[in-house]
Write a structure and sequence with these properties.
The complex is a heterodimer of chains A (259) and B (392). Chain A is of the alpha/beta class and 259 residues long. Chain A has 10 helices and 10 strands. The longest helix of chain B has 39 residues. Classes of the chains: A alpha/beta (259), B mainly alpha (392). Chains A and B meet through α3 and α4 of A and α1 and α9 of B.
C-alpha cells in the first residue's frame, strides 16, 4: 500500500486566556492539545480518527489542513511537507469541517465556481465537475438558490461538493454527518465509500463509532492528544465486540495508568 | 494556469456587495441623499429663521423723531424708518410683522438731551421700545437701535465716522469661497471617506472571521498576499463610491446651507490639473484608510469588536481634518510623508489654490508605501493562526 499521509510527532500547545481558564476552571496557562501524535494513512483508504471531545482531533485536522502550525513535528502529504510546502499541501487536500463555513449570501453554484477559481481549475473542467457533483447530491435543482434559503442537509451537501472542487487526493472530513437527518447522513457516508472506491484517501474525524465501523478501513484512537491505538479496524476492535467497546477498554486502561 | 487570486477575491468582494441591494442602498445611495436632504433642510430652516430677505433693512416706526436720533438712524443702512398714521397703527403693523420695531420718544427729548449735555440738572425721559424678542428680525432691530442709543449716550461728541465706507475689501468672491472650502472640505471629505471604509472593511475582515468563511478560503492554495490585496482593492472601490456619494451630497447642499458665502459648488472652482491631483490624493488616502481599518479588523473577533477598535481612528482622522482650519498651509515637504495628515493638507491646498505638484507626488507615494506596508502586515495576519483560533 502506498503511503500518502505520514504524520510524525505532532505537538501543539495553546495559551489559555483568562476567560478560557475561568471556563475550564484551571489555573494552568498552557494546554497541550496534541502531544507527539504520529500515524500514517494510505492511498485509497478511509482512515478514522476517533476520540472523545477535546481529545485533539480538530486541532490535528487543522494542522493537517495547514490552518495552524505545529509547535513540533511535521507531516508529509504526497511527499510535501506541511511546514515547508503548505501551498502544495493545500492544493492536494479537500477540507470539510463545521467550523469552516460558506457565505450564506451566495448560491451553491457561485461557491463552487469561486473555490474552483481559487484552486486554479480550468473553466471546462470546473463546469463538468460541478455538474457531476451537484447531480450526485441533488444540488442542481437549487444551484441558484442562496445558501441562506437552503436546508441544513443541502448546505452540508454543498459544502462537501465545494470541498471537492479541486478533485483532491486526500479529503479531510471533520464530523461530516453532524446535525444531519438520517437520509442525508446516509447519502454522505455512501459518498465516503464512493470516494474510496475512486482511489481517494479520506481522513474522517468522528465520535460516532458506528459510522467508523461502517466505513473505515483503519482507525486511530486519540485520547488527551496522544494516539493510543492505530491499525486496521479489526485489529483495533481485537477481542471486543464493537469499536465502542474497544475504545472504552483503551480509555479505562489509560485512566488507570494515569492514576 | 493559476488564475489571478487578487482578481478572484476582488470579484467576490464586489459581488458580495453589489448583489446585496440593501447594502448598496445604505452604503452608497443613502449617505449622499441623506446628507443633501439634511443640509438643505438645515439651510432652508436657517433662511426661514432669518427671514425671506435677511439683508433687507429693519423697518422702524419712530414717534416724535428727535433730530439727533434721526441723524443716527439715517446713517445706519440697516434701519429704515416707516410712517404710520398713528402709534396704534404702528403697533398693529408690528404685531402683523409688517414692522420690526416701534420707538416712542417724548416730544421734548432733544431739549432735555441738550440741557443734560450742557450740565443742567435735567432728567432725559427714556424712549419706549416695542418689539418681539422671539422674532429674529424684530430682536435684531431692537439690538441695532439699542446700540445706537448707547452710542448717543457716550459718543455723541466727537461725531461718529462710518468705517465701513472708508474700508475697501480687495478679496474676490472666489477667494472667499476657496478659503471656506479649503477649511471645511478636508475634514468633511476625510470623514466621509472614512465612513465609507467603516461601512465595508470590518464586515469583510472581522465578519468573515466571525462567520468562519475566511477559514474556508485559507485552506485553498490562495496566496495570503493575494487575499489581502484583493480585499483592500475591492473594498477601496466600494469605500470610494460611498465617499463620493457623501461628497456629492455635501457639495450640492453646501450652497444651500451656507448661502451666499458658498454660492458655487466646490468642484466648479477646480481646473483639470486640480481635479487630477485631488483624485490621486483621495484614491491613495482611501487605500491607506481601508488597509488600516482592515488590519485593525483582523485583530477583532467580531464586527462589533472591530468597530470598537476602529472608533478612535475616526476621531484622529477628524482631528487631522480640523488642523487645516488653524494652520497657515505652509508645510515643509517632509510633512507630506505623514499619511492622512498629508492628505488633508493636500485637499486644503487644492481647494485653496495653494499647492505644489511635489507635495501631491510625495503624498501619493507616501500613501502607497504605507498601504504596501499595511497590506504586508495584513498578509502576516492571514498567515497567523489567530485568524482561525481567535473567535468570539
Amino acid at each position: 500500500m502506498e503511503k500518502i499521509l505520514e504524520v510524525t510527532g505532532l505537538k501543539k500547545t495553546f495559551t489559555l486566556s483568562k476567560k478560557q481558564q475561568a471556563i475550564e476552571k484551571t489555573k494552568t496557562k498552557k494546554r497541550i492539545a496534541v502531544n507527539g501524535l504520529s500515524f500514517t494513512a494510505y492511498r485509497g483508504e478511509i482512515f478514522g480518527l476517533l476520540g472523545p471531545n477535546g481529545a485533539g482531533k480538530t486541532t490535528t485536522l487543522r494542522i493537517l489542513s495547514t490552518l495552524i502550525r505545529p509547535d513540533e513535528g511535521d507531516a508529509t502529504l504526497d511527499g510535501y511537507s506541511l511546514k515547508a510546502s503548505p501551498s502544495e499541501v493545500r492544493a492536494r487536500i479537500g477540507f470539510l469541517t463545521s467550523e469552516n463555513k460558506l457565505d450564506e449570501f451566495f448560491t451553491p453554484r457561485y461557491h463552487f465556481d469561486f473555490f474552483s477559481d481559487l484552486y486554479g481549475v480550468p473553466n471546462d473542467v470546473r463546469d463538468r465537475r460541478r455538474k457531476d457533483l451537484f447531480g450526485r447530491f441533488g444540488i442542481d435543482r437549487f444551484e441558484e438558490v442562496k445558501l441562506a434559503n437552503l436546508s441544513t442537509g443541502m448546505k452540508q451537501k454543498t459544502a462537501i461538493a465545494v470541498s471537492l472542487a479541486n478533485d483532491p487526493d486526500v479529503i479531510i472530513f471533520d464530523e461530516p454527518t453532524n446535525g444531519l437527518d438520517v437520509l442525508t447522513a446516509r447519502t454522505v457516508t455512501d459518498f465516503l465509500l464512493e470516494l474510496r472506491n475512486r482511489g481517494k484517501t479520506v481522513l474522517l474525524s468522528t465520535h460516532i463509532f458506528t459510522l467508523a465501523e461502517r466505513v473505515c478501513d483503519r482507525v486511530g484512537i486519540i485520547i488527551d492528544g496522544q494516539m493510543v491505538k492505530e491499525g486496521a479496524l479489526s485489529d483495533v476492535i481485537g477481542d471486543e465486540k464493537t469499536l465502542e467497546d474497544a475504545f472504552f477498554s483503551l480509555y479505562a486502561a489509560r485512566k488507570v495508568g494515569e492514576e | 494556469m493559476m488564475k489571478n487570486g487578487i482578481l478572484t477575491i476582488a470579484k467576490k468582494e464586489l459581488a458580495r456587495f453589489f448583489r446585496d441591494r440593501r447594502m448598496v442602498l445604505t452604503t452608497i445611495f443613502l449617505p449622499g441623499i441623506l446628507i443633501y436632504l439634511i443640509y438643505s433642510f438645515l439651510g432652508s430652516g436657517m433662511s426661514a429663521l432669518l427671514g425671506d430677505d435677511e439683508t433687507a433693512p429693519y423697518k422702524v416706526y419712530v414717534e416724535n423723531m428727535p433730530e439727533t436720533v434721526g441723524m443716527l438712524i439715517d446713517s445706519t443702512p440697516m434701519l429704515d424708518t416707516v410712517t404710520y398714521p398713528s402709534k396704534e397703527d404702528a403697533l398693529l403693523s408690528l404685531e402683523e410683522e409688517r414692522c420690526d420695531l416701534v420707538l416712542l420718544f417724548d416730544e421734548d427729548f432733544d431739549e432735555e438731551l441738550a440741557a443734560s449735555l450742557a450740565g443742567g440738572d435735567v432728567r432725559v425721559t427714556p424712549p419706549t421700545l416695542h418689539y418681539y424678542g422671539a422674532r429674529a428680525r424684530s430682536s435684531e432691530a431692537y439690538a441695532t437701535v439699542m446700540s445706537l442709543l448707547s452710542a448717543l449716550e457716550t459718543k455723541l461728541n466727537p461725531p461718529l465716522i462710518d468705517m465701513s465706507e472708508s474700508s475697501v475689501d480687495l478679496s474676490t468672491e472666489e477667494d472667499v469661497q476657496g478659503m471656506l472650502y479649503s477649511m471645511l472640505l478636508p475634514m468633511l471629505l476625510m470623514a466621509m471617506l472614512f465612513s465609507g471604509c467603516l461601512a465595508v472593511a470590518p464586515e469583510s475582515i472581522a465578519g468573515e472571521k466571525e462567520r468562519g468563511t475566511i477559514a474556508t478560503m485559507l485552506v485553498t492554495p490562495l496566496q495570503r498576499s493575494h487575499l489581502a490585496l484583493g480585499k483592500i482593492l475591492s473594498l477601496s472601490l466600494i469605500a470610494l463610491l460611498s465617499g463620493m456619494s457623501s461628497t456629492v451630497g455635501i457639495l450640492l447642499s453646501l450652497p444651500k446651507l451656507m448661502g451666499d458665502a458658498m454660492s458655487t459648488s466646490g468642484f466648479s472652482m477646480l481646473g483639470v490639473p486640480d481635479m487630477l491631483s485631488l483624485a490621486a490624493v483621495i484614491l491613495s488616502s482611501v487605500l491607506v484608510i481601508v488597509a488600516l481599518v482592515s488590519l485593525i479588523s483582523s485583530f477583532a473577533r467580531s464586527v462589533k469588536e472591530a468597530s470598537t477598535y476602529v472608533a478612535p481612528l475616526m476621531i484622529i482622522v477628524m482631528l487631522l481634518g480640523v488642523t487645516t482650519m488653524f494652520s497657515s498651509g505652509d508645510l515643509m515637504t517632509v510633512a507630506y510623508v505623514i499619511p492622512l495628515y498629508n492628505s488633508v493638507n493636500c485637499i486644503a491646498g487644492i481647494f485653496g489654490g495653494d499647492y505644489s505638484f511635489l507635495s501631491i507626488a510625495v503624498t501619493v507615494l507616501s500613501n502607497l508605501a504605507v498601504m504596501g506596508l499595511l497590506t504586508y502586515a495584513l498578509t502576516l495576519m492571514f498567515n497567523h493562526e489567530r485568524m482561525i483560533t481567535d473567535k468570539s
